[in-house]
Amino acid sequence: MMFGNPLTLLTLGPIVAGFVFLFLAWASPPSKREEISHYIRILIFSFSLLLLSLSTLMFLESYSGISWTSIGLNNYVYDNCANADVALEAGGCSLIDGFGVSWHVGVDGLSFPMVWLTTLLIPISMLVQWDAKKGAQFHSLILLMEGALIGVFVSLDLFVFYTFWELTLIPMFFLILLWGGDDRKYAAQKFFIYTFTASVLMLLGILVMYYFTRVPVWEGNITGRAFDVTLMAASSNQLGSSFLGGFGMQKAVFLLLLVGFAAKMPSVPFHTWLPDAHVQAPTAGSMLLAGVMLKMGAYGFIRIAVELLPAALIYFQWLIVILGMISLVYGAFVCLGQTNLKRMVAYSSVSHMGLIFLGIATMQPLGIAGAIFMMLAHGIISPHLFAVCGAFKHHYHTLEIGSMRGMAKHSPWLSGHMMAAWMASLGLPLMAGFVAEIAIMIAFWMAFGWLVILPALTLIITAAYYLWSMQRTIFEGGEEGELPESLHGEDPVDITWHENAGMLVLAGFAVLLGVLPFIFFDMMSAYSGEFVSQVLLDVLNEVRP
Amino acid sequence: MSDTKTSEMRFLPIIGIFLLYPFLRIFLGEFMTGTPFTALDSAFLIPLLPIAVFPVIAIVGQLSNGEGWWRDQFKEGGIIALCTLAISLSLTIWLAIEFFTKGASFHEPLEWGLFNWFTFDTIGQNAAGDWVHIQISNSIGVGIWIDNVSMMLLFVASFLCFLICWFSIGYMNTDPVNKDRNHRFYAEFVLFTAGMLGMVLADSFLWLFIFWEIMGLCSYLLIGFYYERPSAAYAAKKAFLTTRVGDVFLLIGLLMMYDIYGSLEFAVIFADPSMGGSVDVSMLRWSLIMLFIGAVGKSAQFPLHVWLPDAMEGPTPVSALIHAATMVNAGLYLVARFVPFFDVTSHGHGVEGLSDVAVLIAWIGGITAFMAALIAFVQNDIKKVLAYSTMSQLAYIFTGLGVALWFYNHGEHHAAVIAFGASMFHLFNHAMAKGMLFMASGSVIHEMHHAHHHLAHGEGDHDDFDPQNMRNMGGLAGKMPITATAMAIGSASIIGLPLIGGFWSKEGIVAETWNAAALHGGTELLIPAFLILLTAGMTGFYMTRMWMMTFAGKPKTEFADHVEEQTPWIPTPLVTLSVITLVGGFALAVLGATHWLGEAEALGTLVHEHGIVLAILETLVHAFLPTDAFLFMVTWITITISLIVGPAMAMRIHGGKLKDGDRAPQLISWIPPLSSKFGRANVDELANSGLADALHRRLYFDEIYEWAISKTVIPLSHALTWFDTNVIDGAIKGIEYGSQKISRDVRKATTGSASDYILVAVIGMFSILILLWGVI
């Protein structure tokens, strides 16, 4: 059975359900809309919890006894084409026979944490914005988004991958356009056009690789090629430097992919869509954007560019270091100059994504594992950051740093969450971000020595902008604090129970992964270790002068 | 008030039950599993319990704020915190008993592995230039490692944290300012304790760093406890960022250390720091220097000392806890862990050629000791005096450690052991005395505040009366007998009054520094040696000055005249620590604490061999009549200037008899009359001089740092922000605008709405596919 697979369920389930609920919400009679909307939201939320428990069960191995730390390179678990009767090369799970497009899904130490993260963040983002206007539609779109996002992480066919990649834009586009801030139209368009342009470059790279991936022709396959990433990897491994017709083409494709993925991550200089999109996006949208969508870039980069073109990775190591370093340092300094809380947090994402590039550029198993862990850690911490920003916007109607003071007095819970999220993001030990940082830094020293001074000193700048922003929002300001003008005389309030619950879960996971990182780190480490020992070491020794 | 009094009494038996906990554990463990539990098996609970209690107090406190049972029965979380710390303390004591019965030491530490934090591979180039695996499935572990020094610090930390928590219940909960927010204090307090205890127990440099940072966080939170005050919010940020600067270097040091040894665990590194002689000495040197910069930041040494005085913005128990008794010792502990790298004697596998690092440590210590003592001369805030005194005393220990490391690296084992042991012993004595001094100052501030509040009938809350300013005090010896006595004993210990706590260790440090500088050819240590000798006298001056301004003479304000010592929960810790300072130092000296901490002998060797009387005599002779003539001279110069010159000068300026009718408590009743015998010196001219002004402004460090930041980081951030919006985003907007214009011109039909873009996207995708099909 091609579709009888939990990953297929995780991908297509929410998409189908999302459309159904969207239709229900749209078709409900206006007189009963409120009531129906309420039930729809509860249904959607329970459905997303169901998916979360499914992915957690998958993780706990109780589903089929999987050892997450012993997955070989280019092997996947929950692989729907792994059985002999549906062999991939024979077109066993072919979706579009003519092009060699297959429905091929599977997860490994790189993609599974992202899948789990997505299923975790979806219910939390719904919870945080439980009281959104037109809640039924809003939550249906988020559910649609979940399917598309998981699709990106699980599909091993680059055609399907690309389809899901673009599909994620559509719900996010509407989330920004319909539920966003004052300048939402501009932001939504910028977001869409920008990332779409970048992904066209990526598509070009994928198509070139497709062109060079010749496979045994199965019935109905007209082109004689396939989009399957496992086949491409096998081909890359087998052909070595003559993959893609030669090293020159490899380099060209690598650059195309790099630009495509760097814009998504985003890395300087392709990052300016991010602050605009974040500031205008609704809270849940921001949380998903920062939590999962940015990781798509990093994931795609590792899965496609790094895994398939290791020689080009070594060739362009310097470029990746420079991109990562600039994103990290430049991002941190720009954060220091921001006056809008959400913009600052958005730029901090840019800064942290730079660390992922640095981790990959070390070409150490530890560094790559650290980069992957950074994806997970940032995926838990940044939604917390944005949830806090959203709460400020929601309850105080402003995001200007310095327009309010001493809000800890009026919003102790919100301030507590701000403290927790801010500290997690600046890399406090025993929280998830620190593990990623220390792993990347150790590997970075091994690879580049004293150059580590730059990222290390950036830690001070990071601490500076976070602490400074806290000092000027929740601290200072006398016994009663200074209320922002945007309140217009309303009484300041604390966060609601559902915001609080969602944020508490995020804080809990940030601490859990900071204290017991091996839960996910070891599978990432196994993945990167496999990759390095199977592929990278050989290539390194080949290109060694 | 009587209510709180009885609640303290009611609480005493509960503490007793918690102290029984280990025995219950042993009994239950044996009963249930058949094998006896050891203290080491439970040692991980020492930091884990407080960590686990942190969210409990924070969340329960936030939810049940203002409710009667929470405020009265639980003291807003204080009781929960105190019980937790009682368990930690009793586990520590149990562990100490096991430590001594097993005869553990640095070479046979108590070790206990918990779990692997994470696992990974690393690759690198071998000698032939091939890329190969260096490590496969290497893990960073989590575990416990206890030797003499960590045992001592563990006890100091858990004991002082417990006492200070006790004190806090009296100090914090009786002040209306803190109403309904003490849960935050206690939550952060236990987390802080967990940080300190975890750092001491850690079995690797990485976990040392992790808990180190946790303490940094708690320090930030506790300094900023009164977050609504701009000064407190500023001080908290400053403390975090300044120590962060040090921490970043520490982190780099760790990375280098990992690169050298392929591990950060003590057991692996200390087994052979020289790696059979193949270690890269210059890299190791840099690594140690980087670690030392981290220690400088945490222990507030020159030039990263600027945060400590500002940190006095926190409530006084916090000052006692963090900025005297525990956290600032973290840096010392880290430097104490350097010993195996330096030890080239037959006892270790150290690396030769590191003595310049030792000299650096001694120099930083000497400079800070002198500078801090100098600034302490002009402080009028009682807590600031203590803050600078802390800085100065920590610097003593740094100097001592530097000298010890210098000796180790020159193969002088005996002298190294004494210097090292004296430094660690000074850490102990200083922690006990300074914890008490801060609590005593808290008691003074608390009662001053009370008196002011009482006299002003609650209306004076907003005037600028400063209950911490010593110029508002005076003559308190007659009003606050316990506090005055405790303060006198603590000051005596810091000054180094013979036979009391600090004397034993300080003498050792000064003597060994001179020993190295003058008798072992360490001319590069001469300046630190001079500086700390001078500082000994200066310590005598500023500590006496503080006591005199506060407790001697006539009351300088009517509030000081109406002070009463009446708050419950406060005196108990003061009395406990007074006793420890008064007799504990001597007792430990006789037991040979210096040698024990220096890993030379078991505790109590001397007593075992010669009996108690001879041991006391020998200790005394050794301290006062060193056989070497030069050291004899150094010893007596130190005693003279610290005990006579410094205090006498302070008494001349600030001394005086108490108000008629007031009587100082028995033990110290002789001090105020004595202080009036030295005549009066007029120092107005000196007080208005440029030097005094420079000292008041803390020698301009803050100004220089702020100026440097405002000229570099801030403009750079503004410039880059401008660049981002105008150049990078500007370019994007330009392209956007241009392409929009073109598209408007070309296809008038475009509405510019989102759905069209999606349509175009879909069409584009399909056209590419069709194209491909056609081509191939």
Your description of this structure?
The complex is a heterodimer of chains A (545) and B (776). Chain A has helices at 6-27, 33-59, 112-128, 135-154, 158-167, 169-179, 184-212, 229-239, 247-264, 273-280, 283-308, 310-315, 317-336, 341-361, 365-396, 412-425, 432-448, 453-471, 497-515, 518-543; strands at 94-96, 101-102. Chain A is mostly helical and 545 residues long. In chain A, helix 14 (341-361) crosses helix 17 (432-448). Chain A is globular and about 70 Å long. In chain A, 66% of the residues are buried. Chain B is 70% helix and 4% strand. Chain B has a two-stranded antiparallel ribbon with strand order 1-2. In chain B, helix 17 (355-376) runs antiparallel to helix 18 (382-409). Chain B is mostly helical. Chain B is built from 33 helices and two strands. Chain B has helices at 2-19, 21-33, 39-42, 45-63, 68-73, 78-102, 148-173, 182-201, 205-223, 230-261, 266-271, 281-298, 307-310, 316-325, 329-336, 339-342, 355-376, 382-409, 413-455, 481-495, 501-519, 526-551, 558-561, 571-591, 593-597, 605-624, 629-654, 671-675, 684-687, 690-696, 701-711, 713-746, 754-775, and strands at 110-125, 131-146. The model of chain B has no long low-confidence stretch (mean pLDDT 84). Chains A and B meet through helix 6, helix 7, helix 13, helix 15 and helix 16 of A and strand 1, strand 2, helix 9, helix 10 and helix 32 of B.
Layout of secondary structure:
The complex is a heterodimer of chains A (545) and B (776).
Chain A: H1 6-27, H2 33-59, E1 94-96, E2 101-102, H3 112-128, H4 135-154, H5 158-167, H6 169-179, H7 184-212, H8 229-239, H9 247-264, H10 273-280, H11 283-308, H12 310-315, H13 317-336, H14 341-361, H15 365-396, H16 412-425, H17 432-448, H18 453-471, H19 497-515, H20 518-543
Antiparallel strand pairs in A: 1-2
Helix pairs in contact in A: 1-2, 1-4, 2-3, 2-4, 3-4, 3-11, 3-15, 3-19, 4-5, 4-6, 4-11, 5-7, 6-7, 7-9, 7-10, 9-11, 10-14, 11-14, 11-15, 13-14, 13-18, 14-15, 14-17, 14-18, 15-16, 15-17, 15-19, 15-20, 16-18, 16-19, 17-19
Chain B: H1 2-19, H2 21-33, H3 39-42, H4 45-63, H5 68-73, H6 78-102, E1 110-125, E2 131-146, H7 148-173, H8 182-201, H9 205-223, H10 230-261, H11 266-271, H12 281-298, H13 307-310, H14 316-325, H15 329-336, H16 339-342, H17 355-376, H18 382-409, H19 413-455, H20 481-495, H21 501-519, H22 526-551, H23 558-561, H24 571-591, H25 593-597, H26 605-624, H27 629-654, H28 671-675, H29 684-687, H30 690-696, H31 701-711, H32 713-746, H33 754-775
Antiparallel strand pairs in B: 1-2
Helix pairs in contact in B: 1-6, 4-6, 4-8, 6-7, 6-8, 7-8, 7-14, 7-19, 8-9, 9-10, 10-12, 12-15, 14-19, 15-18, 17-18, 17-22, 18-19, 18-21, 18-22, 19-20, 19-21, 19-24, 20-22, 20-24, 21-22, 21-24, 21-27, 22-27, 31-32
